[in-house]
């Protein structure tokens, strides 16, 4: 609960910045707020505003956001069992499925604790993000760039810390290293957000090693 509360505070600042940047890009207050309620994906929301601010069409903005959110497909395979059998709970659980809620859940080894961490993180961040977006939209550009607060580094650092317990096992460690190398290698050549999708190819390294290599070890 302490970790989630600290992350929620950071999310609120970023949400306020998104609201301010959306208004600066010409997005109405109501649209920024509705987008946050119905989409609830910070990276994709910033992507949409960035494309529109650069003169892109709404179609291009939505296409870029959908491409960035393709990573939610493997997320769903990982946390699907945590959402339960109830259809309403599954729909709500899918809506709050973000990087942070998945990472908090995966950091827990006990299924019950993983379920509790997932729901606690997702709902708390949803309740922090949406009011902050509305406040930021009304304050305009007063909040400034999230990078001014160091939050551009805080989020990756927090997620890395959540993943550390998983890296004790050889399989997840191989996947993490391979994904990181692929993402870094693809960054100079691909648009922002796409290297994250390329990193998903690292999951291949989760496959069992050939018997000859296993014996050699």
From TrEMBL:
InterPro entries: Brnchd-chn_aa_trnsp_permease. It comes from the Bacteria. The chain crosses the membrane at residues 46-68, 116-140, 176-207. Keywords: Cell membrane, Membrane, Transmembrane, Transmembrane helix, Transport. The keyword DNA damage does not apply. It is found in: Cell membrane. The keyword Mitochondrion does not apply. Its main location: membrane. It is a multi-pass membrane protein. Belongs to the AzlC family. PANTHER family: INNER MEMBRANE PROTEIN YGAZ. This is AzlC family ABC transporter permease. It comes from Allokutzneria multivorans.
């Amino acid at each position: 609960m302490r970790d989630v509360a600290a992350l929620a505070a950071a999310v609120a600042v970023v949400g306020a910045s998104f609201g301010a940047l959306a208004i600066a890009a010409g997005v109405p207050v109501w649209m920024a707020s509705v987008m946050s309620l119905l989409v609830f994906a910070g990276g994709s929301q910033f992507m949409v505003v960035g494309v529109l601010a650069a003169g892109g069409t709404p179609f291009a903005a939505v296409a870029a956001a959908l491409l960035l959110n393709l990573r939610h497909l493997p997320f769903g395979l990982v946390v699907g069992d945590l959402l339960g059998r109830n259809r309403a709970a599954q729909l709500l659980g899918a809506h709050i499925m973000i990087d942070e809620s998945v990472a908090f859940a995966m950091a827990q080894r006990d299924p019950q604790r993983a379920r509790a961490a997932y729901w606690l993180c997702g709902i708390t961040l949803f309740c922090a993000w949406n009011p902050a977006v509305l406040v930021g939209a009304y304050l305009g550009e007063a909040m400034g760039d999230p990078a001014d607060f160091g939050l551009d580094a805080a989020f990756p650092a927090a997620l890395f810390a959540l993943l550390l317990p998983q890296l004790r096992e050889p399989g997840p460690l191989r996947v993490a290293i391979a994904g990181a190398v692929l993402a870094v290698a693809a960054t100079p050549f691909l648009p922002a957000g796409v290297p994250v999708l390329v990193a998903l190819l690292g999951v291949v390294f989760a496959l069992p090693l050939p018997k000859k290599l296993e014996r050699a070890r």
